[in-house]
Amino acid sequence: MSKNQLSRRRLLTSSLSFAGAAVLSNRSGRASGFVSANDRPRVGAIGTGSRWCQRATGVDGPWGSAPDFRKYGDYVSVCDADATRRELAAGLAKEWTGSAPGVHADYRAILDDPNIDIVHISTPDHWHAKIAIEAMLAGKDVYCEKPMTVTISEGQQICDVCTRTGRIVQIGTQQRSEEQFIRAIALIRAGRLGKLKKATCSIGGAPESPQIPVAAPPSSLDWNLWQGPVSEKEFRYLAGNNGETKSWSRCHYEFRWWYEYSGGKLTDWGAHHVDIATWGLGKTETGPLTINAIMVRHPVEFKNGYPVDPSRYNTATQFLIRTTFDDGVEIEIRHDGDNGILFEGTEGRIFVNRGKLTGAPVEELKSNPLPNGAMEEVYKNRPLVDHFRNFFEAARDRKEPISDVFSHHRALSTCHLAGIAARLNRKITWDPRNEAIVGDEQAQGLIAREYRKGFEIANG
């Protein structure tokens, strides 16, 4: 039995015993439901940028998970390394709940608060694992925006801690709760595509930047705290008509395009589409054997897997990476094509993204519908609901949510391996059982990273 299977089995057992008895009794009934005002879980928000709520960046807009998340729980505390954002978030939380929340720069104040049930993590990617692990150890359930980690090693640690603590953790891969993706998986499981051969994930390319000069951080931003566990770098900023921040920088939103803080498109959209591909192919308990960087273009020069120019975005802008499993099934990750996932089998093919589900097997549903309950079975035998409600119901019932840490770790490991192959520009071999790169010490060295002194993971 694989480490993932053992972890999931232990999680489900411990969730019902340790968490179900000890933790729920400590919550004084607040976790028993979320409709009544007295039953609503208390939530602490760590990271309050645009992924949390666009309004917390000072700009009105439709983006962010908090406006929907708050349907099921109350934000009683907010935290951000940027004073401007945390004050805006505090105003929103007060507007939503009628009470002023706790306001913090240091996330540990939220973890130390015994009255907080759930931690909602919307920080930049390089903070996700550390906060999630420490939140679980503090007895909190966790909703973490994707991607869960920036290294494979972090995913291994999260799976271990989730197993040991029995906490409920949902990852923000919301496509798992969207009807067209669930229907696509149900079609595959019903055999409508025949024997599966391949999934192609078109995730889009990443941007380049001009040379970004060193600059003084804004007075509202604690740059040292924002960097946290990664190696210290100079703040860089260049104003211009670029993206939601109208700038190029090493910071807000633009952190996605630096390997120091993220994995570029390979973990940004890859966390969504490779997750669906892995789920659909039935590979959530394993991983590929080979990862082949057929074509990769970076905007700067690399040496030994690391960028040599600190002044420009450095994640891959174009790529074609082919991963192959032990049965010959492939997941291909590419920058071009219609954004979405193409599944191919011996009897047909389907394409799915956030706007459509197409292909002959889909058209044939008119005359040959799926069996009753097929989609609910895909959804772990639970009623189909939105992604946030699924999490709150899972926390209430002490059940595994639809986007659990174990399957996400496996899918995201494929993204991380693709990133390692891209950085080294060569094919690598992976041992999915032992979760190690075979015969390539340099590549193996990239599955983990050293944490900056004073910001190590408190893994008790």
From TrEMBL:
Coiled coil: none annotated. Its EC number is 1.1.99.28. SUPFAM superfamilies: Glyceraldehyde-3-phosphate dehydrogenase-like, C-terminal domain, NAD(P)-binding Rossmann-fold domains. It holds the Pfam family GFO_IDH_MocA_C2. Keywords: Oxidoreductase, Signal. Residues 1-19 form the signal peptide. Residues 74-172 form the Gfo/Idh/MocA-like oxidoreductase N-terminal domain. Residues 214-456 form the Gfo/Idh/MocA-like oxidoreductase bacterial type C-terminal domain. GO terms for molecular function: glucose-fructose oxidoreductase activity; nucleotide binding. This is Glucose--fructose oxidoreductase.
